[in-house]
Records
---
Amino acid sequence: MAKMKKKAKAADLIISKARTKGAVKNANVAGEFYGALDKRVREIIKGAEIRAKANKRKTLKACDL
């Protein structure tokens, strides 16, 4: 059987749906946007962790973004 893609549950999201929607001024937010945004945020955080570790730090800083 084909492996089914797991949908992100609201409790699993890093981002806040309400705050995301509040930040959008002149558009509506589709339901699928939240999962995609959450995925991108997780990628950014992972990249920042890699950079911090490469610089021998355990603390993420703005420069890691």
Note: The radius of gyration is 15 Å.
---
Amino acid sequence: MSQENLIKLECKECHRINYHSKKNKKTLKQRIELKKFCKWCDKHTLHKETK
């Protein structure tokens, strides 16, 4: 994966970085939010893209 397209996803409840993903930054200007499983919260929570 190229480093320009790599993003980090952080749990909104416990604020831990759980996932890395990629996105096309030319077409998607907003930060993405996905519902993913957090192993520290032990449930599905909203994960937001961080810097």
Note: The beta strands are 6-11, 17-22, 33-38, 43-50.
---
Amino acid sequence: MKKIGIDARLYYQTGVGTYLQNLLFYLDKNKFKNEVYYIYLRKQDAKKIRFKSKYIIKRIADQKWHSFSEQIGFLTLLLKDNLDLMHFTYFSYPIFYWRKFMVTIHDTTPLLFKTGKASTKNPFIYQIKHFLFKVVLRLQVNRAVEIITPTNTVKNELIKIYGSRISKKIHPIYEGVSYKLFQSKENNNLGNKFRNFFIYVGNFYPHKNVENLLKAFSKLKTKSSLILIGPDDYFSRKIKLNKKILLFKNPPLSNLIFFYKNAKAIIHPSLSEGFGLPLIEAASFGTPIIASNIEVFKELWDGQYLSFNPNDVNDIVKKISIFIEKKTKFSYESILKKFSFEKMTSSTLKIYHKVTQNS
């Protein structure tokens, strides 16, 4: 029996968590013959997660990412389990792990922008941490036997940074709409309270460029409101709200579905993305997309969205105004066929099998 490990310590985190939840959900639907899967989870997460397959085994890895214990404790656990292949699903990993591994690199944003808590740190501390991050990522890219990216754009960015020699081991695999969204129902009661609105869905890190969206919306001549939907954190608390700008923190999926289905459009002003899950989710409900003219969105949406220059507030105003005036519509039916977490899992399994057959 081949032993394959999957790092799922970020199972309940935003972004990577959605990727993990769907990868493991569809993995659990497969029939296994010659392999067993070790799923590495934080202790508090493992209690909430159940797998039907006897070939999927939960392993407690209570060492947090970006920590010293990850480098020692998690490394020791992995070596003890003697895996044929380990799948690291995030750039933080035990750098002295010498056995065969593959990695999912979701984006190159941390190389280009201050993200998350990094942007709140002392500049000197940030520089040190950013240097260490670059070292860890370079080691991971060089040592991984295979690399998964969510788009061709991320693949091309990695090749540009690390060279063409890594090209053959990079596999762009599109993601999709979370199974949890399919299983949830819309909260229709919100219809009595909210009408005539645009939405932004995501976190509020600096590279998300929400500040320019707020500047644009303050200049916009419209009776519509803008509803910001995201986490309750340091960044969301800094947002200045008014009658036109509303903030919903951590809404349940039933509320999120209402906002997707009833919004005039979703607006996404990001400066950098690896994929952009909220846009896929919105499009699945037929919600029009107004978003940055960055390469990844051009790749995914093939012109079926209204684009703007994210660095130009006046252009954001102009494009939203055009949308309101012309009532622009897009057809997403054919595009959405290429986005699927189930297909993503199937493609990932093929890589697992290819690597382990050669071991």
Note: The longest strand covers residues 35-41.
